Amino acid sequence: MIKPKRLRAGDTIAVIAPSSSASAEAFERALANVATLGMKAKVGKFARGSNDFFSGTDKERLHDLHWAFSDSEVNGVWCVRGGSGAPRLLPDIDYSLVKKNPKVFIGYSDITALHMAISQRTGLVTFHGPVASSELSDYTKSNLVNMVMGGTADHKILPSEFNIAQTSALFKPNVISPGKARGRLVGGNLSLLAALAGTPYALKGLKGAILFAEDINEPPYKVDRLFTQLRQSCEMRSLAGVALGVFSSSQSATDAETALTLKVLKDRLGDLGIPVVSGLSFGHIRDNCTLPFGVEALLDTATASITIAGSPVI
To answer: Is 125 in contact with 35 (CB distance < 8 Å)?
Structure first.
């Protein structure tokens, strides 16, 4: 495992778009977010581009990713948004370059593909957290800062009070199988984890790990299909535990749909014989905590908490 250097005020952050393009408004918000952390932004050459539903060609997006890790002035890399397209880059990434220049790398959603590949090929600790264009709530910002700037040992991540106050049961902690689990964190967006099944970058080496997963507004039948694919493509029974985020970003789901989603989660994960809890505060939601990929953590279903063992940065 390779831990990146912690970020500090005054550092330079590379803002790149390895997936879909970002609107001008979203990009300005991204630059403002970098500034609120007391840092300077350095924008990738092709980050403001657009090519169909991507920010650029595969070659252009790879250029910016490689530039971000090779530029000696850059201390961290923050993806401006998710969307689609990151999996296309995986076979052509220069993993030796990334390994030789370990830096804080942040993003989620489609960026899950990059987390998975970089973690497996380099051992670098990356950060499943808000994209640069996210609207940083106090909860989201404080968790991000603690992970990439503070690096407090044994930091305990509790559910957001804002999330718990939401009407939908999907935002509230729900214990599927009680208990405590300790293991390295691996996971991300459920759709991407399923999409990587059968590829060289699929979930593997899960023995003793804690799987974390989230997704946005997927109907119950799709959630069922996605978890079924994971059950049939990797050894989920070897996991130490499962931490699930919020599977909806709005209140649009009916009570019946919400109840069915919770039923699906219990059906697909409740028989694994390991601690499982849903409704933790990460995903496509306002209050989105940051989870360090590959770092050991303690999952406690009783408190719906994830405690990071040690510091994810040096």
So the answer is: no
Give the span between the Cα atoms of 119 and 125, in whole angstroms.
7
Structure tokens belonging to residue 75 = 């201390």
What is the value of pTM for the model shown? 0.97
Residues recognised as catalytic: 109, 214, 284
**What is the SS3 assignment for 132?**
coil
User: Mean pLDDT over all residues of the chain?
Assistant: 97
Domain 155-308 architecture: 3-Layer(bba) Sandwich (3.50)
Mean pLDDT of 92-105: 99
Q: What is the CATH number of domain 12-136?
A: 3.40.50.10740
Contact (Cβ atoms closer than 8 angstroms) between residue 261 and residue 274: no
Q: Which string of DSSP letters, residue by residue, matches 17-36? A: -SSS---HHHHHHHHHHHHH
pLDDT tens-place string over residues 257-266? 999 999 999 9
What does the domain layout of the chain look like in residue ranges? Answer: 12-136, 155-308
